[in-house]
Amino acid sequence: MPIEFRCQTCGKLLRTPDESAGKQARCPECGAVMSIPTPASPSSAPPPLPTVAPPSIAPVVASGELNPYQAPAASSYLSEPQSYAVSGGVVPTQLVFSEVVSRAWEAYQATMGVSIAVVITAVAIGIGAGSVFIGLLQGAAGPGGQPPIGLLLLMYVFMIPLGLWLMIGIIQFFLRAARTHHGEYKELFGGASLIVPVFVANFLSGLISLLIVLVPMLIVAMAIGLLVVLAGSRPAVVVTGTVLAYAVYFVSIIYVSLAFSAVIPLVIDRRLGAVEAIKTSWRLTNGNKLPLFGLWFVCMLLYFGGALLCGIGLIFTLPFMAHIFIAAYLAMSGAYDEQV
Questions:
Q1: For 235-260, what is each residue's pLDDT tens digit?
Q2: pLDDT tens digits, residue range 152-164?
Q3: How far is CA 265 from the centre of its chain?
Q4: Average pLDDT, whole number, for the chain?
Q5: C-beta of residue 258 within 8 angstroms of C-beta of residue 296
Q6: Would you say 92 and 286 are in contact if contact means Cβ atoms under 8 Å apart?
Q7: Is 258 strand, coil or helix?
Q8: How far is it, in rounded angstroms, from Cα 248 to Cα 105?
Q9: Helices within the chain (DSSP H only)
Q10: What percent of the chain lies above the pLDDT cut of 70?
Q11: Residue 186: which of 117, 98, 96, 258 has the closest Cα?
Q12: Other C-beta atoms within 10 Å of 100: how many?
C-alpha cells in the first residue's frame, strides 16, 4: 500500500511506494525536499495527544531547545533544505542499456499524448518565432541584401533565451513524467527562472568542451606536420593525416558530448551551480560512456527513421528520444528511488 503524506511547504498530497520510507523526496509541485515518513503499523496504538497549554499562557522554551509549539513552516528542515549535490543524493550508478530503454518506454506509454503535445508545442513556438525574425530580416535587408546589424543582434538576444526557456520546460516535463508517469503540460512554460543558470552552465561546458577538443587536434596537427616534413607531401601521407585528424575530431566531440550530457538536467533537477553541475556530470558519466553512446545511436536511428516518413514520424520518435535521454540521466544518477 503506498505511503501518503502532504508536502510541508505547499500542502500537495504525495504518494510513494512502501519501500521508499525514510528516503529523501522532492515535491513535484514546489520542489521542496523532505523525508518520506514511515507508515504506522495498523496494530500499534496511536500516540497519546500532547498536553498543550491554554492559548493565554505562552510556553517558555530554553534557548537552544526544540520548541514543540513552533509552526512547521519555520522548522529547520524547511528553512535549510538538503542539497542535491553528490554528497546529498546523487549516486553515480552503472547504466544498464535495456533497463533505460524499458523505463523510457514505460514512461512514454503512460504519457504519450501529453508528451507529443509538449514536443509539438515547443517546436511550433521555436519555428514560429524563427520565421517571424527571418521575415523581418528579409524585409529590412538593404540594397546589398544585408540586414541591419541591430536587427540581427535583436534576433539573437530574443531567440537564445527563448530556446533555453523551451529546453528547460521540456526537461522539466520529462523529468516529472519519468518519475510519476504523469505529465503536466504546464511544466513546458515554467522554466523562466532557470534561464540564466542554464545559460551559464551551457556556456562553461561548451568552452571546456572546445578546449578538450582543441588539445588532441593540435597534437595531431603537429604530428602530421612532422610526418610531412620527414616523408614529404605524398598523397598517401596527406590522406592518412586527414583521416586521422577527422577521426580524432569526431571521437573528441562525441566524448565531451557524452561527458557533459547531464550538466543541464543537473542544473534544472538538482539546482546545482554551473561548476558543480559540470563536475558532477563528468563523475556520473565516468564508466557509462559506452552505454550512453549506444543510447545515442538508438536515438539517431529513431530520428532518421522518423524523418524518412516525410517528417511525420518525428512526432512520435522525438518524445521517445527525450524519454530515453531523461531515463539515462535518472539511471546514472541513482534518482529512480525518488519516486513522488
A1: 776 777 778 878 888 888 999 999 99
A2: 788 888 899 999 9
A3: 2
A4: 80
A5: yes
A6: yes
A7: helix
A8: 34
A9: 76-79, 97-110, 112-140, 149-180, 195-231, 235-259, 263-270, 274-285, 289-308, 314-332
A10: 80
A11: 117
A12: 25
At residue 231 the predicted structure's pLDDT band, cuts being 50, 70 and 90, is: low
Q: How far apart are CA 124 and CA 111, in angstroms?
A: 20
Q: How far, in Å, CA of 298 to CA of 74, rounded?
A: 48
Q: Which three cell numbers stand for residue 56?
A: 493565554
DSSP 8-state class, residue 102:
H
User: Could you read off the pLDDT of 31-67 as tens digits, one per residue?
Assistant: 777 888 876 544 444 455 555 554 444 455 444 444 5
Q: Which residues contact 322 (CB under 8 A, 6 or more apart)?
A: 115, 119, 170, 174
Residue 69 DSSP symbol: T
Euclidean distance between CA atoms 64 and 271, whole angstroms:
31
pLDDT digits (tens, 9 = 90+) for 84-125: 333 346 788 899 999 999 999 999 999 999 999 999 999 999
Give me the helix-helix angle, 149-180 and 263-270, nearest 10°: 70
Alpha-carbon distance of 174 to 4, in angstroms, equals 23
Name the one residue in this structure whose C-alpha cell is 534557548: 63
| Mean pLDDT, residues 222-245 taken together | 74
Q: Which pLDDT does position 319 carry in this prediction?
A: 95
- Asked whether 112 and 183 are in contact (CB, 8 A), the reply is no
> How is residue 19 written as a grid cell?
519501500
Q: Which three cell numbers stand for residue 52?
A: 498543550
Grid coordinates representing 11 are 500542502
At which residue does the C-alpha cell 540586414 appear?
147
C-alpha cell at 305: 527513421
- Residue with cell string 521555436: 126
